[in-house]
Structures are given as structure tokens and as C-alpha cells.
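wait is this the right file?? whatever heres the structure
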């Protein structure tokens, strides 16, 4: 009987593991999709001081996350000195560094061209995360990452590059990849919402200080459009998307989770289409299908995968 030979228990573990993985996939789809919708919101802040707008956005996110995580913030006491160094590095690369690099990149290159470089994140995330484990990514994950990267280029189209813009784009790519890799060991210790809160508050303070110290500004004339855009970015991108992403990487390995970054441009063009800003092109539909295929190639177990053998 299965209860005697242990096969029933193994089957139950497989079912629970499969359910956990599917929940993780759902979080990993929603998080980058929400980040993509923030592209349209960001376009309404072109006239706004860059560091201030980004700082306020993370500040709004921090306020929301403080309310969400107020009963869990005690877990931050579990972090040691090395962990706090990682928190600082995560905040200054994945949030502060990425925001600054993206803004500087689009000043000298087209957003489309910058997006193509950032679209390489699945490949870099897979390589960096597995390098920490002193091994190479599996062939199916690496191939899936290449397909996702190529498909995001199809979604976004091709744009013009300038050398300075390329350098800033590469920096943004590295910062984006480090965001996922550095957060993985931290989120296991403190949980998604406390980690999202502390990184948001660090990014908010450093960005606003940068604006005040190095790019002083006069009084700003606020509009309702500014308030709505910053509020949307703060709530849905800096707070909700961060929590979803952190929840996802607690259930799915980081090198696999990186594949889902391909949903960022999809969220961008679909949100613009819903708002009536643009229509969906055939290339975008084709690229979306390619992203889904690439993710499927990366997440589906190989024929000799242990899980498949146990379930057979």
C-alpha cells in the first residue's frame, strides 16, 4: 500500500510543491506586468524633477508598506551586519541605481533601444544567480531566457542607440538583475513586506537627498496629474509589485523567476492600449506569444526531472 512504502506521502509532497510553484508563477506574472503599467504613468512626470519624483514614488510605497508590514517589522531584527550590507546594496542598485540609470539612458537613446538592453535581464539573472551557487544555469532555463529576451525585443521594436545611452542602459541592466539576486536570501529571512518596506524607505531618502544636495530646485507647481502618477507608481509598482515579486521568489528559484521579467513590456503596451493611447500591433502579439513560450521552456521540467519520475 502507498501508506506503507511512502509513495502516498511523496505524491502529496509533489502536489503541494506543484501548487506552491503555480502560486509563485502567478505572483511572478503579476509583478512585472504591474511594473510595465508604470511606464505610462511615468510618462506623465517628464517635466518633474527626476530624483524627487522617484524618491516620492518610493516614499509613497514605503508608507503603504509600513501599514501592510507593521506587525512583521520585528523580523528585521533577525538581520545581521552582512544582511544589512546586502539590504543597502539592494536598495542602492536595484532601486536607486536602476532608477537613475534608466533616466540617464533615455536622455541619449530612445526608450525602445534602452528597453531592448533591459530585456536581457532574464539571461543575466540566470547567470549571476547560478554563479553564486558555482554552477551554470540549466540548458532549458538558459534557452528559455534567450527566447524571452528575443521576444521582448520583438514586442518593443528597435530604436536608436548612442554610446552614452548604451553605457547607462547596461548599468540599468546590471542593477535590475542584482535586484532579484540580492533579494533572494533576504526575503527568506524577513519576509516580502518588511524587505519591500526597508528597501523603499532607503531608496526614497537617498533619492530625495540627492535631489536636494546636488540638484536643488525651486518651489514646484503640482498638478493633479503629478499626484495621480506618483501615487500609482508608489502603490502599484513600488508596493504591490515589490511584494508580489518577493513572494514569487520564495516559491520559485531566482534563475527561473528572471524569465518572467519579459512581462514588463507586455504590461506596458497593454496598459497603453486599454487607455486608448495606442493600438496593439502584430509584432507585439507575436512577441507576447514568444515570451510565454520562452517562459514555458524554462519552467517545464525535463523528461528525466525527479518530479516527473515520482509522479509517474
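ok assuming it is, sequence goes like this
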Amino acid at each position: 500500500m502507498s501508506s506503507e512504502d511512502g509513495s502516498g506521502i511523496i505524491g502529496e509532497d509533489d502536489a503541494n510543491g506543484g501548487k506552491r510553484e503555480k502560486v509563485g508563477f502567478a505572483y511572478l506574472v503579476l509583478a512585472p506586468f504591474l511594473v510595465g503599467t508604470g511606464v505610462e504613468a511615468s510618462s506623465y512626470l517628464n517635466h518633474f524633477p527626476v530624483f524627487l519624483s522617484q524618491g516620492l514614488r518610493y516614499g509613497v510605497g514605503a508608507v503603504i508598506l509600513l501599514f501592510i508590514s507593521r506587525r512583521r517589522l520585528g523580523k528585521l531584527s533577525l538581520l545581521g551586519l552582512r544582511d544589512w550590507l546586502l539590504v543597502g546594496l539592494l536598495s542602492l542598485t536595484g532601486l536607486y541605481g536602476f532608477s537613475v540609470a534608466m533616466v540617464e539612458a533615455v536622455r541619449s537613446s530612445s526608450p525602445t533601444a534602452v528597453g531592448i538592453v533591459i530585456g536581457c535581464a532574464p539571461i543575466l539573472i540566470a547567470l549571476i544567480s547560478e554563479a553564486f551557487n558555482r554552477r551554470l544555469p540549466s540548458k532549458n532555463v538558459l534557452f528559455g531566457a534567450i527566447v524571452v529576451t528575443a521576444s521582448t525585443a520583438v514586442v518593443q521594436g528597435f530604436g536608436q542607440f548612442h554610446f552614452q545611452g548604451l553605457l547607462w542602459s547596461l548599468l540599468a541592466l546590471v542593477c535590475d538583475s542584482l535586484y532579484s539576486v540580492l533579494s533572494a536570501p533576504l526575503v527568506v529571512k524577513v519576509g516580502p513586506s518588511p524587505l519591500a518596506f526597508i528597501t523603499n524607505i532607503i531608496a526614497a531618502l537617498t533619492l530625495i537627498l540627492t535631489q536636494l544636495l546636488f540638484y536643488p530646485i525651486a518651489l514646484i507647481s503640482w498638478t493633479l496629474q503629478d499626484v495621480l502618477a506618483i501615487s500609482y507608481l508608489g502603490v502599484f509598482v513600488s508596493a504591490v509589485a515589490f511584494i508580489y515579486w518577493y513572494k514569487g521568489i520564495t516559491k520559485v528559484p531566482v534563475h527561473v523567476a528572471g524569465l518572467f521579467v519579459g512581462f514588463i513590456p507586455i504590461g506596458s503596451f497593454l496598459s497603453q492600449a486599454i487607455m486608448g493611447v495606442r493600438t496593439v500591433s502584430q509584432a507585439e502579439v507575436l512577441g507576447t506569444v514568444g515570451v510565454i513560450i520562452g517562459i514555458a521552456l524554462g519552467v517545464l521540467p525535463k523528461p528525466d526531472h525527479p518530479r516527473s519520475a515520482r509522479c509517474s
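The two ends are 16 Å apart (CA to CA). so i think its the right one actually
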